[in-house]
Amino acid sequence: MKALTWQGKRKIEYGEVPDPTIEQPTDAIIKVTSTGICGSDLHLYEVLAPYLDPGDILGHEAMGVVAEVGSAVTNLKPGDRVVVPFQIACGSCYMCDQNLQTQCETTQVREQGMGAALFGYTKLYGQVPGGQAEYLRVPQAQYGPIKVPDGPRDDRFVYLSDVLPTAWQAVEYAAVPDGGTLLVLGLGPIGDMATRIAMHRGLRVIGVDLVAERLERARRNGVETLEYSDDVAEAIRTLTDGRGPDSVIDAVGMEAHGSPKAKFAQQAVGLLPDALQRKMMETIGVEQLAAVYLAIDVVRRGGTISLSGVYGGGADPLPMMTMFDKQIQLRMGQANVHRWSDQILPLLDETDVLGVESFATHHLDLSEGPAAYEMFQKKQDGAVKILLKP
Ligand SMILES: NC(=O)c1ccc[n+]([C@@H]2O[C@H](COP(=O)([O-])OP(=O)(O)OC[C@H]3O[C@@H](n4cnc5c(N)ncnc54)[C@H](O)[C@@H]3O)[C@@H](O)[C@H]2O)c1
Ligand SMILES: [Zn+2]
Ligand SMILES: [Zn+2]
Q1: pTM of the predicted model, to two decimals?
Q2: Among 41-45, 251-255, 329-333, which stretch is predicted with the lowest mean pLDDT?
Q3: Is residue 151 domain-shared with residue 178, that is, in the same domain?
Q4: How far apart are CA 256 and CA 254, in angstroms?
């Protein structure tokens, strides 16, 4: 089959790989019909190189049609239309029972000290072949795939794999009081979708980014927007009675614009051999904390910060004194897809209140994947969300 594989930093290849097969009774094989490129994939493209091997199949936002199931998978049959959550969870362990599917004890990657395995997401998360491919082997298929109705276009449902539950969890964790104000840092797919969910709940939403098209897109949906600059904290306070927003979502992550020191550290680390690179990433931290610092600075006292952006490194320095003094509540983590999917599904009807049908800016063929990664990273051609069709 054809797939997108990682070949090195900023090197994605479209080419032939072996077809996946059923390996466990709990596996299913899905014929992929749509598959997204995520901001998380950009970390693989850039900073997480030490954790990948050339040939790793990328992608964790797939939907499609069941082609084959293992003997223990009784809830699915060939021909079913499904969305595949980005994490692999069993649905019956202690953590899954707590609705913490990203911490699943059956699939935890213990040798790396990490949570549940993820599709297409490095050795840290089990090095499981991903969904930017014609076919995907889905482990724990007795629980994972979410069945969706035939009829509507893939665009209606594909974001259940990641964007929707991630943005939903970001808003839930932000715990904005009724009538309160939410600040969303970063208006990529995750931040943009979080603003839509928050507006749907009747909240006041302020959004910050550096990309004109992304700001404009949010503004059209009724978000008050501010362009990121060195003075953005003051501008945010001016809009919020000098007090700051009740809650802040960081939908940026570790490659935030605004930390030149980190850029240097990253490049320096990039020059070392893999094993040393890994050690450095784990001990000095990636230090790309511009968005977190901004969130800590501007959130009102006693407010909540909800981190969706992915962070690496074990020793990122944080302004602990200010965090303590301001009595900030900090919540974070990979989204637990099944925890939220039942609440989200009813919003994906014809009324399309979240605008999922027109959310993607680009629909491309899987073979155009290498160029699509570059376009998404460089934010060219107004690219916000790219869906690929194998
Ligand atoms: N928690 C989860 O389960 C989960 C799931 C999906 C994605 N993510 C993470 O969420 C983050 C966003 O993902 P995305 O798909 O929207 O990616 P993206 O890279 O397209 O979006 C990030 C946006 O942040 C903007 N930005 C950069 N620096 C900024 C700053 N200092 N202030 C304000 N905005 C700034 C960028 O211009 C960009 O528009 C990534 O870190 C991704 O890894 C987490
Ligand atoms: Zn993702
Ligand atoms: Zn589990």
Answers
A1: 0.94
A2: 251-255
A3: no
A4: 6
